[in-house]
Amino acid sequence: MPKALVNGLRLHYQRAGQGPDLVLVHGLAANVAFWYLAVVPALIGEFRVTAYDLRGHGYSDTPPSGYTSAEMAADLDALLDHLGVERAHVVGHSFGGAVALHHAALHPERVASLTLADPLVPALQRGRPVRPSPDAEAELRRLRVSTRRDSPEAGLELLEELASAHSPNGVADARAFMPFRAWKGSDQTAERWRSLLETTTAREDFGAVAGLTIEKIGSLRQPTLAVFGERSPWLATGRVLEETLPDCRAAAIRGVGHFHPLVRPRVFVRHLREFLTSTSDSAFR
């Protein structure tokens, strides 16, 4: 199980394939399995793919602090150093999208392109209430989880309640709002998520802008793809990104919500491959 010692902690990572470097950054409460189930196998014929566990997730260490997008972007930069990667295409889902954006803002020379899958970015989410789709609302009600959320930390609150609602015989699955039902080891994933929020500064850090302002995002020049599930409660963020980023194209995947790379991996990979094919030739010159 390969681990890199970066910034005083060990980050677990996996690599496969040959070609231009492509780095996958998962979201909150997930791990490398989010990508390795279907996305990685579809890409390793064309790219050298690296996926890793964010600090506090999967098999990476859990320090008592350091969970803002800025600090996680520093982890990503140090991981690239460790692996000898000078420049890469970076893909981020949910909070992993904030990490990818922040890394591009701090180290633009290292990011050939950005793919943001339902990115959860504090500066863009504030003041935007979470409104799940009707199907997801029905699923949440069966779990007795609140469906009306107006606070800036709405997404974090939802994940916390879902972790508490998790049970091996529960009715939720990956098609709704349950990352803890999407892969093997979901019991441990839910427990680790609860522990992370209770024993570290992660709860406060995840909601911090940490310098990734709208103005900073607007300064990025990398080709960017923003992919959203048609039923995602954060769909409006895609329009903000299109308006803010100078070189951004957007795509919506029909019939799914926030976890579309996990639920519809073939469709997600098709959008990603088309985008990367159009940017790869010029991005690595």
Rg calculated over all Cα atoms: 17 Å
| Largest pleated sheet | 8 strands, mixed
Number of domains: 1
Number of strands: 8
Looking at the structure, what is the overall shape?
Answer: globular
Overall helicity: 40-55%
Q: Which oligomeric state applies?
A: single chain
- State mean pLDDT (0 to 100 scale): 85
Poorly predicted parts: 167-177
The level 1 CATH classification is Alpha Beta
Strand line-up across the major sheet: 1-2-4-3-5-6-7-8
CATH fold label: Rossmann fold
Q: N-to-C SSE series?
A: EEEHHEHEHEHHHHHHEHEHH
From the 3D coordinates, which CATH architecture would you assign? 3-Layer(aba) Sandwich
Q: Count the DSSP helices.
A: 13
* Helix and strand composition category: alpha/beta
**Strand-residue fraction?**
15-25%
Distance between the termini: 33 Å
